[in-house]
Amino acid sequence: MSTGEPTNDRSFLQAVRKAAGFRVSPRQIAPVMEALERRHQPITPETVAELVVALEQGERSARQRRNADLWRLVGAYLALEGKPAHPQAQRALLGRVRRILGERQPDRVLLEVAAALGAAGHPLEARTIADAVRWLESRLGPALTAEVIQPYLKQAVEAVATTPPKSSPRRQPRR
Fold first, then answer.
1. DSSP-derived 3-state class of residue 102
2. Tally of domains within the chain
3. pLDDT tens digits for 138-163?
4. 95, 75 in Cβ contact below 8 A?
5. Is 147 left (phi over 0), alpha (psi -120 to 50) or beta?
6. Can you tell me the distance from the alpha carbon of 150 to that of 113, in angstroms, rounded to the nearest whole number?
């Protein structure tokens, strides 16, 4: 990290804990730091604490305990966009992606795609995530795994970033 690894700095960790108002662990800080760094945002104890607090409101489900760092990273990108970032909001985002795609891909694949989009600065929208997954499926087949998609994530993000958003047909106003 270009920030000198603030999570390893005891005084930085203490400052984050003070700003958050509870004992924040380095595990909670790491995905927030990654999101801030990838989006070229300032990394201060106050900013980190604000995002950690947004991510930690509510209970994590059993599925969010698996791949917890990825769930938190996606939550951090949601918080950076000013969207609700608590665990329920994270699950709702993946639920919307699943309604578009169906149940064919595991959480880890959807989270990896969402994290790649967030890292590239793209808004985390269900349609965009689904479009990136479809792009990956068209190149790699329907049985995606996190390991298989890793080399292609950047291309998938670029593909959906250059594709104009699908718009719904507009109604003509009544006269």
1. coil
2. 1
3. 999 998 999 999 999 999 999 998 65
4. no
5. alpha
6. 9
H/E stretch holding 115 reads: helix 107-119
Domain range for residue 32?
Answer: 12-162
Task: Give the C-alpha separation, 170 to 81, whole Å.
Answer: 27
Confidence band of 58 (pLDDT split at 50, 70, 90): confident
The verdict on residue 77 lying in a domain is: yes
What is the distance between the alpha carbons of residues 29 and 47, in angstroms, rounded to a whole number? 11
Asked if residue 171 is part of any domain, the answer here is no
Q: Within a domain: residue 2?
A: no
- Look at residue 66 and give its three-state secondary structure: coil
Q: Does 132 reside within a domain?
A: yes
CA separation for the pair 175, 168 (Å, rounded) = 21
Task: Look up the pTM and report it.
Answer: 0.75
